[in-house]
Amino acid sequence: MRCRALACAVLVGVTACGTGESSVPLMSGTPDAMMLAGTAGDLPANAPARFDFGRRASDDRIALWDIDVRPDGAGLPPGRGSVAEGRAVYDVHCVACHGPTGTEGPNDQLVNSEQWDLYPTGRAVGNYWPYATTLYDYIRKAMPQLTPGILSHDQVYAVVAYVLYMNEIVPEDAVMDAQTLPAVVMPARDKFVVDDRIGGSGPVR
Amino acid sequence: MARDAETPRTDRSNLSRRAWITTASGVVAAGLIRTQSDAIRLSAQEAPRADPTKVPGRFVSPVGSRAPAEQPRRLLRTEALSSSSRTPLDQLMGTITPADLHFERHHGGVPDIRVEDHELLVHGMVERPMVFTMSDIMRYPRVSRIRFLECSGNGGGVYSRDRMPTEITVQQLDGLLSTSEWTGVPVSTILREVGVRPGASWILAEGSDSAVMSRSVPLEKVMDDALLAFGQNGEMIRPEQGYPLRLFLPGFEGNTSVKWLRRIEVTDAPTHTRDETSKYTDPLGDGTVRQFSLAMDAKSVITFPSYPYVLPDRGWWEIRGLAWSGRGRVARVDVSTDGGRNWVAAELQGPILPKSTVRFRHLFEWNGRDTLLMSRVTDETGYVQPTVEQLWEARGPSTSYHQNHQRAWKLARTGEVTFGLGELV
Question: Are residues B154 and B127 in the same domain?
Fold first, then answer.
């Protein structure tokens, strides 16, 4: 790849330009090193600095689609919902697939507050999920499974509060909103570690 | 002497079964017996038929089709929105998976998307957030690469010491693996276009299916070899593989190659979506959970002989299989015909491409006794496909992804083949 100094300079320290022909991940390096990294072209040698195909994204367009929620609460919309309101949402929209107490199925078990030392025997929100914000992100995008997107922001906050309550993570009078949800500390939070498999002939991981 | 066709040993009608048929001349031919109608078709084949050199053939046609007798099928798990179907590895040759037999794993079903409506939004830590139509994307310089795609849940079900199955086909066990020639635009080309801001280190990729499947991917990987793929084996990607646009991350667990891709957000941290926390993570048995276990470690499988094939006779047989590594090229494959006591190098069919499947073969003369057939791949990083004991030791009992340990097939005196790992543990 002809990895142009201009393009790579922006990325120094975080990445490298490669061709996927290398098996060893390309680590961060100087622009010079990166220019040597690839050989077979991702971009033709005479490619311009920019093609400008496509159009600028308007702020409205970004706001419409940028619906993910991160652990620090970034992306959470305005709104609020209580455990009691969440019970009402759950009994209409969720109970058929997840059961009256979140354990009966037929689909994924949502409740398990049995904590574990070495390894879990059943994995659910209460004993396995590291972040409460993921509940908002996922339910807003994907649930209820047959009518995703049907719930209002308030209803999502409410049902998240109720799922957390069923898992014995928040009290019965809890209210979830853009401030309280990221502040919830999940029991499994500190169990997650980064991948340490690296290939090679060392010990099996 | 070859025997007559075996009657199926199992009533499971969804199991395809290759039986060996002895004809009057003693020539052994292969036929597929799955249902009663298969049996009728086979007997019809033995009836006298028109001499094709004495009747005119069919005209040309706009789209080809398989020979009526050759109808390989994916194996469905359940009919549900979040489900999978598996590639019939034992019935395929070479390394390329026909696009209509590529495995499926969806979390919200297969969406119907019109190519003219589909757009990709690229935003976040970039200088110029942009929207691209499919015509925009397809105008960029493109590349084509032969790469495997494997679900990291592939091979689950042969990890528990207490529940080691014997009647499991290679399709059921390892059919969440396919290989295609993928065509697309390197994501690095598009990120160069929008200008990544300093400090960026991850992206979030999001699909426009009803699960809005979302995964975080390290920017380093994206810049190395990620594709915005729209081509699969020479034609537009099939709807089940992400039509009209998918992320394709060579060598990474399949779930990260987000299908029906509508959005890439450049970020400075992972988003911790449901499918990288609740799922696709590995509790290691020591109180920790491994997260972002993205690379697919090297693995090999023998596709023939495998359950439920029956070898009609002792003598020369070719052991055939596939080997691959998410970390680069396959360096060697060894085969054992005595349950792992002795190993010999198998022959590899080139070209050996990085992060692609490689076909291996080993000719062996079966003496008619109980035999355990195994394969073991080594990749170019020196990584050797582990035994299941090594994985138990390293990861404890409760992981459910990345189970790439050595498999075994038991070839019994009767010629029947069953999954044989239970014989070893």
Answer: yes
Task: Give domain status of residue B400, yes or no.
Answer: yes
Q: Which residue has the higher pLDDT, B80 or B130?
A: B130
Q: Which helix (H) or strand (E) holds B22?
A: strand B18-22
- Mutation pick from A12, A15, A151 vs chain B, by most beta carbons of B within 10 Å, is A15
Distance between CA atoms of residues A55 and B319, nearest Å: 54
Span A66-191: which CATH code? 1.10.760.10
pTM attached to this predicted model: 0.88
Chain-chain contact of B277 with A21 (C-beta, under 8 angstroms): no
- B25 assigned to some structural domain: yes
Task: Provide the mean pLDDT of chain B.
Answer: 91
Q: Which residues of B touch A11 (CB under 8 A)?
A: 196, 219, 223
Contact call for A61 and B274, based on CB within 8 A: no
Residue B5 inside a domain? The answer is: yes
- Cβ contact A51–B140 (<8 Å): yes
CA distance B395 to A36: 38
- Cβ(A169)–Cβ(A186) below 8 Å: yes
Residue A50's pLDDT is 94
Mark yes or no for CB contact A20/B139 under 8 Å.
no
Q: Smallest Cβ distance to A68: which of B81, B186, B271? A: B271
* Nearest one of B301, B189, B293, B186 to B247, comparing CA atoms: B186
Coil, helix or strand at residue B189 = helix
Q: What is the pLDDT of residues B272-313, one digit of tens each?
A: 999 999 999 999 999 999 999 999 999 999 999 999 999 999
B29 domain-assigned = yes
B-proximal residues of A, 65-124, CB under 8 Å: 65-71, 117-121, 123
My answer on whether B64 and B210 are in the same domain is no
**Spatial separation of the C-alpha atoms in residues B297 and B252, rounded to whole Å:** 9
**Domain shared by B251 and B344, yes or no:** no
Phi, psi of A64 (to 5 degrees): -65, -40
Q: Which two tokens stand for residue B135?
A: 């015509």
Q: What share of residues in chain A are helix, strand, coil (percent, to 5)?
A: 35, 5, 60
Asked if residues B382 and A200 have their Cβ atoms less than 8 Å apart, the reply is yes
B241 and B161 within one domain: yes
The domain locations on chain A are 2-39, 66-191
Q: What is the structure's pLDDT at B79?
A: 83
Parent domain of B385: 299-424
Same domain, B13 and B61: yes
Domain boundary among the residues B52, B71, B90 is at B71
Closest CA to B171 of B287, B303, B56: B303
Q: With an 8 Å Cβ cutoff, are B219 and A197 in contact?
A: no
Q: Domain count of chain B?
A: 3
Report ipTM for this prediction. Answer: 0.87
